[in-house]
Amino acid sequence: DIEEARERSYTQFKLKLEDIQLIYANRNESWEKARQEKNTNIHLIKLMELDLDVGKCIYIDDAVLPAWKVAGNLPNIDLRLSDKRLFQIMNHMQSIPFPKSKHPVVAAQSIEPEPILIPSSLSNPEQTLEVVEGMTPIRKTKEKVEAEENKDKQIQSTDKIEKKNEFEGQLTQLEAKFTLDKINVHIDKSMNENNEDAPFLRITLESIVAQTKIKTFDMEFDASLANLILYHEQFIGKDNQQLRLLSAQLEQDTSNNQNKKLVCVNFLHTSPENPLFLTSNYDGIENRAHVHFSKLVVTLQLEALLSILRFQDTLMKQLPQDTPENQAKKKQEEEMKKQQEQKNAEDNKNIDKTGKAVQKKGKQSTAS
After folding, report:
1. Whole-prediction pTM
2. 245 CB burial (10 A radius; 0-12, 13-18, 19+)
3. Phi/psi at 59 (nearest 5 deg)?
4. Please, which pLDDT band fits residue 62 given cuts at 50, 70 and 90?
């Protein structure tokens, strides 16, 4: 079989990672217990696995088989995040001190060299005549130039033929494909009554595929997304399922593979050194992109939209208006202002005391 023969032409390397998870735990939460239970409220990313296959061709300069083949797959990514957990992470990130540069960066001024005038060697008329007499006749020079041009054209034509032959069998240096079956992003809403999180929104991305081919003169990249669905988990639709606010309406025509996808992107880059750069295959275009977008159905439900807007308002109110650095500066300025006010008050008291003392001395002197 041809496929089996091709597989035998590669040295295979396989990598598989299992039980990949991301946990964010506070001091009073046990991350070790959560890691063993594998599905808790403090899991930001639930258990997932990664498969990666790398193959190196045993043949060198083969026009059919790629030199390297890479294939990766992520079956499922399940991410869960609540507004309460989001602000905890943001506060944690803002509390991390970043190093500051001790020395300010000073831009070096570029010094332009002064122009130096070189005296012409032909300023002397006698020397100019000698140089002109030593030159070859114009006719001979013209014939020599034409002969060199014809020789260059012959060399260029032979080079083009050789390059075309090379292009017909241009090598594929890398062929890579990465697939991600599904991404689920759960957004929970914290309930103030019992301090628990309730499901609110769910974003689902289905069948993400990215693949690329790198050849001698070309680089091709393809990416596609099958579907994008936005669920409101607190409302039920007409089909007795969770309300879909966004979803793709894919066409039933199966003859075209693009109709099965919500978004398809194709990008082709070629080098100007490509022998076929000016042919109809490329039309002298280095970069070419094609984007196909299918229908996206939007469902508007008043109560669902109002709940999302209220959720957004609560998030915006809880967001910190200033960075920690600005807050520290404001606090320092307020403390300095208070110290200045206290100092001014003490100075005013001292002035009042000295004024009264002077007045008493003045009265005593007048009485005597």
Report:
1. 0.65
2. buried
3. -100, 145
4. confident
Helix (H) or strand (E) holding 16: strand 10-23
Residue 262, burial from CB neighbour count under 10 angstroms (0-12, 13-18, 19+): buried
DSSP 8-class letter at 281? T
Indicate the length of the chain as a whole number: 368
- Compute the distance between CA of residue 263 and CA of residue 272 in angstroms, rounded to an integer: 29
Two structure tokens written together for 327: 């807050």
Please report the DSSP string for 201-265 in residue order: EEEEEEEEEEEEEEESSEEEEEEEEEEEEEEEEEEE-TTSSEEEEEEEE--S--SSGGGG-SEEE
Cα separation, 271 vs 218, in Å, equals 7
What are the tens digits of pLDDT across the range 249-284?
Answer: 876 655 666 668 999 999 999 998 888 888 888 888
Four-point Cα dihedral 167, 172, 173, 176, nearest 10: 150
